[in-house]
Sequence to fold (105 residues):
Amino acid sequence: MDIQLKRGLLDVCVLAAIKSEDSYGYKIIKDMKPYIELSESTLYTILKRLEAANMLTVRTAEHDGRLRKYYHITDNGIRRIEDFKKEWKEIVSIYRFVTKEDGDE
Fold:
């Protein structure tokens, strides 16, 4: 898969994982596991990129005597998910065109 396409998909997956509630690294990986395998190092790279793009914010809170970073989706992050949904319709259309002779549908 094209690296840029995969990066975009993973970004949206991480945003979707925190859309309904703030979350932390281990829980994000756990929530995504039924759909996609993601390493900690990949996740934290994505989280830093999304924070730099103002798609999420980070807060630190104590949990069981240790500090934990919680991630919160911003309005920009919500917009990115909505944009992705619109883009996905076009991607599906392209997929159907490419595979129409294969009988895949």
Q: What stands out?
A: Residues 75-99 form the longest helix (25 residues).
